[in-house]
Amino acid sequence: MSISLLLEMALEAAMTSNPDRTAVVSGELRLTVDELSALADGGAGVIAVSGAEHVAYVGAGGAMLPLLLFSSARAAVPLTPLNYRLSADGLRALIDRLPNALVVVDDEYREAVGNAGVQVLSSADFLAAARIAEPAAEFADPDSVAVVLFTSGTTSAPKAVELTHNNLTSYVMGTVEFDSAADGDAALICVPPYHIAGVGAALSNPYAGRKMVYLTAFDAAQWVRLVDGEGVTAATVVPTMLDRIVKVLETERATLPSLRTLAYGGSKVALPLVRKALSLLPDVGFVNAYGLTETSSTIAVLTPDDHRAALGSPDEAAARRLGSVGQPVPSIEVQIRAEDGTVLGAGETGELFVRGEQVSGRYTGIGSVLDEQGWFPTRDVAYLDDEGYLFIGGRSDDTIIRGGENIAPAEIEDVLVEHPHVHDCAVVGVEDPEWGQIIVAVVVPAPDSTPDTEDLRSFVRGQLRGSRTPDRVVFRAELPTNATGKVLRRELVAELNAEQSISKESA
Questions:
Q1: 373: phi then psi, degrees, rounded to nearest 5
Q2: pLDDT tens digits, one per residue of 122-153
């Protein structure tokens, strides 16, 4: 099935039940499902006339993301939302990698784009043209590429992940019940358009029949106001957003009565923050969603029932599941493998491999990295417990090798963040001539506290083997993160290595 057909199903259901139902709210712009579909037809016409082989979008998202997704699908041309936070050179370099691209850009980023691509249209001009263009509609080959997303490229040049129509529709149909939303249901979306979660939200919510409310520039107080003002029933946030929302809830004593589901993901969330959020919103169902760009979004879910069961369980193994990403969705198979490829059993740590129709594992210019049986190597360190709950221990690239011993940073972080004087932390490996690497804990202190270095080291030593004790503890006001809340560990490592070199030169 193609994305175009997915929208047709959503439109048919909406027209049958409520033809005037609002589909998108983005600032002052409000579109019904019928209006969104008509604009997508016109947008497809604009793309077809341009002769472009690809559409690139540089902007903050909002209504433009679903509009361009469906327009591109109906024109049978792939879409690439780009990271608008990149430098001008970075943006143009990525656009140059796309064949004959029509570039649609928000006014704020027009100068950065320059003359990249075969044609450049402002978002406002594209929207205006879509309203009057001759409609075009074509059902794309399900196996053709629908969306290309660039990886963050923190350690190498960004890879271009190819997601087919079949990958994306398999994800939606495997995780969302068609036309299942109740009248008045609304989803608040504040993840960036160039992230797979943003693409997934723009596809899954129309399929469920849920209004999409966009907040393109995240502000926690505005997020809370939108939940109340738009009667938001579901929302998705990344860890840094959840942290700021919790602070607003504590300050304003807000209860968010309309909110029924709050999903979080994008990177690991500290358990003290999860527990605090659960206590502040006792009537909200929390969902931890885990996925990757190459898997077309979510492949494992910790459900609201899982959260509550783990939170109140006297059983240590059950309580530990609050730190898991839940169980794989029904359409996904998972394996944990050792370095030699052996499939490991429950409780054994190795690399996570996944398989399913929504899994792409294909990159432009590289091809597929799936093995002969269709398994994708995630490069995430993980294990499954006896009940099939999946625990993610971070990226294999982040493993610290100290004196020949492999150490997962997450193991130390999970302990350290429970210290009452620690608000957040990241553990990284820093170069050392004797040990190869040493363990450095970068700590963000809790408000109104002054943590003691030796006290923090003793706290870790008391719960883990001595070899897991941080060699150094440094303090920062905040951790460097990307737009989806992932800690930029490479930045920390580079900074700490540089500091260490300067210190040696000064000695």
A1: -95, 5
A2: 999 999 999 999 988 777 889 999 999 998 75
**Whole-prediction pTM:** 0.89
Rounded distance, CA 344 to CA 466, Å? 26
pLDDT at 266: 83
297-302 sheet: strands from edge to edge: 29-32, 22-26, 211-214, 186-189, 234-237, 261-265, 285-292, 297-302, 327-328
Q: Work out the angle at residue 405's Cα, subtended by the Cα atoms of residues 402 and 410, and round it to the nearest 5 degrees.
A: 80
For the chain, give every domain's residue range.
399-506
The span from the CA of 126 to the CA of 68, in Å, is: 9
The SS3 assignment for 352 reads: strand
Instruction: Supply the DSSP string of 285-346, one letter for each residue.
Output: EEEEEEEEGGGTEEEEEE-HHHHHHHHT-SSHHHHHGGGS--EE-TT-EEEEE-TTSPBP-T
- Which of these, 296, 265, 358, lies nearest to 149 by C-alpha position? 296
With H, G, I as helix, E, B as strand and everything else as coil, classify residue 102. Answer: strand
**Among the listed residues 325, 494, 491, the one whose alpha carbon sits nearest the alpha carbon of residue 394:** 325
Task: Return the structure tokens found at 46.
Answer: 């604009």
Please say if the pLDDT value at position 403 is more than 60.
yes
In the predicted structure, residue 216 carries a pLDDT above the cut 80: yes
DSSP states along 1-34: --HHHHHHHHHHHHHHH-TT-EEEEETTEEEEHH
What pLDDT sits at residue 123? Answer: 97
Which residues, including other chains, have CB under 8 Å from residue 424's CB and lie 6 or more apart?
243, 270, 417, 443, 444, 478, 479
Q: What residues does 37 pair with on adjacent strands?
A: none
Phi–psi pair at 290, nearest 5 degrees:
-120, 135
* Closest to 147 (Cα-Cα) out of 324, 6, 326: 6
CA–CA distance, 188 with 237 (Å, rounded to integer): 9
In whole angstroms, what separates CA 311 from the centre of its chain? 24
Q: How far apart are CA 172 and CA 348, in angstroms?
A: 31
Dihedral over alpha carbons 263, 264, 269, 273 (to 10 degrees): -50
pLDDT, residue 501, reads: 61
As a whole number of angstroms, the distance between CA 455 and CA 436 comes to: 25
**Residue 26 is encoded by which pair of tokens?**
């983005």
For position 433, what pLDDT does the model report?
Answer: 83
- What's the CATH number for 399-506? 3.30.300.30
